[in-house]
Amino acid sequence: MTSSSALPPAFPPESWIKVLPQGLYVEPGNFFVDPVRPAERAVITHGHADHARPGNIKVLATPDTLAIMRARYGDGAGSSLQPLPYGERLRIGEVDVRFVPAGHVLGSAQAVLEYRGCRIVVSGDYKRRSDPTCAPFEPVPCDVFVTEATFGLPVFRHPPDGREIARLLHSVELFPERSHVVGAYALGKCQRVIALIRRAGYDKPIFLHGAHIPLCNLYRELGVDLGELVPATGLKKDAFVGGIVMAPPSAVADRWARRLPDPVICMASGWMTVRQRARQRGVELPLVISDHADWDELCQTIEDVGAPELWVTHGREEALVHHATGRGIRARALALVGFDEEGQGELPDVEHPPTHDANPGTKPGLGQGALL
Ligand SMILES: [Zn+2]
Ligand SMILES: [Zn+2]
């Protein structure tokens, strides 16, 4: 490892890890991390659709991420799937690879890559808060830290999730004749919200939109306790009175939700900080619950890993680059494509939607939607 000076290292990391159109390419190991197009060899940080794509030949990921990929893609998950549990080391070509928990969703990992004494950590997506459904993020000291920046602006400060869940449960109490439908992405967010509701002491059955059933079942198979879950399909309207229904974000404001009794439309997302977004989506009760680091968590993590060099990707890179540079860290935005530039419809389960959707034409600012 190099010392923490801002001088370029003698052996520059960009000489062996490169940004190609297909994604982040690790040359001495001949593999990609989270390739956006099918690769011969892929190291996958977690199961979200913008990181784990189908069609790779050889896939290396944590056992839980592989289970998620298999559940979603079947045989398309890859021709050969190799599990690597957290903490175990594997040499690929000339590169040592290990996974360390990222605290983002079940199975999510930071890829720790070492080559000739230089350590690069590709964090994928991460958060620092406790999440009952996955192992907590572990900071790893490194020479280069590759960070996401989904909420990379100082205006994004997520409140404690316990407070958001208390708001939901308070509303359930307040309106016993209504139903509450909570929009949440299918992988990670849905299960985390359920687990947080359980942690707050709510023990009635929770209803599930059909789209949420497979991954909730998988989470339980993998040992995550979610309490009693009931498929919402085929039930009479009355069954939902006073109840909580989990649904994909796309379903909460559409016809599907109208068959529920006077539904309170809720949405669990870091983007609910932006009130205009909540209004646009017809959300009555926005819940700011994110699986991504907020601004403070991003800055704290940069401190914790102590890397003299920072590469910033998908999200609002500029503010974080500026912040890091001010702290004597060499920082740059990675021009990775495929994470924030595809339609949200194609990536139904991710929280970092296209920038143009979040914020039309005003990257990197927050735009007119910000009311904070
Ligand atoms: Zn993700
Ligand atoms: Zn992502």
Automatic annotation (TrEMBL):
<dbReference type="GO" id="GO:0004521">
    <property type="term" value="F:RNA endonuclease activity"/>
</dbReference>
<dbReference type="GO" id="GO:0004527">
    <property type="term" value="F:exonuclease activity"/>
</dbReference>
<feature type="domain" description="Metallo-beta-lactamase">
    <location>
        <begin position="20"/>
        <end position="185"/>
    </location>
</feature>
<dbReference type="InterPro" id="IPR026360">
    <property type="entry name" value="Xnuc_lig_assoc"/>
</dbReference>
<dbReference type="InterPro" id="IPR001279">
    <property type="entry name" value="Metallo-B-lactamas"/>
</dbReference>
<keyword id="KW-0540">Nuclease</keyword>
<keyword id="KW-0269">Exonuclease</keyword>
<feature type="region of interest" description="Disordered">
    <location>
        <begin position="344"/>
        <end position="372"/>
    </location>
</feature>
<dbReference type="InterPro" id="IPR050698">
    <property type="entry name" value="MBL"/>
</dbReference>
<dbReference type="InterPro" id="IPR036866">
    <property type="entry name" value="RibonucZ/Hydroxyglut_hydro"/>
</dbReference>
<protein>
    <submittedName>
        <fullName>RNA procession exonuclease-like protein</fullName>
    </submittedName>
</protein>
<keyword id="KW-0378">Hydrolase</keyword>
